[in-house]
Amino acid sequence: MLPFAPDARHRPTILVSRLAEHTHNLHADPRAGFLAVDAPDGDVLSGQRVTLLGTFEPLDPSPEDVRRYLRYHPDAERYLMLGDFSFWTMKLERLRYIGGFGAMGWLDGAELDPLPPLAAAEENALIEEFGRRMGSAGGAQLLGIDRYGADLKRDGIRRRFAFDDARSDTETLHAALEVCIQRHAD
Question: 67 φ, ψ to 5°?
Fold first, then answer.
């Protein structure tokens, strides 16, 4: 089990120690399967899950990459200060999605996200807007937002708020964020 944050293209980004055995394994053979599960009731077999198949690559992170990761995992800042940790991101080849009983399928990595990612400045502006509007009410924090949904943290639990459909422009993203704010304001 390993904490991750999605990058702007929805690929998992991990922060690992250069001394760890799994990091040595990534250098020897970067192919990997990466399982992400949403099982709020603890039953992983009935929850939604996706297995990502691909190869991990070392990432020379931009300042925005680091800020994004730390929004998802603020405690990771202490690991960055050690100087021993490095970022890796997965280049997706295929994924297997299971949405529950009878809802499953394969998707090629190139099909995952046909829309261009949000620019970091646009995502940051939406996060600031959420923070201004929500304040301390509701206790929800917007970790990240993309054209398909928003990642929220409330009471220490990270949840995905999926939009009804993809949002291809700023106006529709603001409208989706408004719905998100209304649902999480209480």
Answer: -60, -40
**For 112-127, what is each residue's pLDDT tens digit?**
777 888 889 999 999 9
CA–CA gap between residue 86 and residue 19 (Å, rounded): 10
Domains of the chain with bracketed CATH: 5-111 (2.30.110.10), 120-184 (3.20.180.10)
Tokens of 132: 């201004």
Global pTM reads: 0.87
Q: Which amino acid is at 117?
A: P
* Cβ atoms of residues 6 and 34 within 8 Å: no
Helices vs strands, H then E, count in the chain = 5, 9
Q: pLDDT of 50-85, one tens digit each?
A: 999 999 999 999 999 999 999 999 999 999 999 899
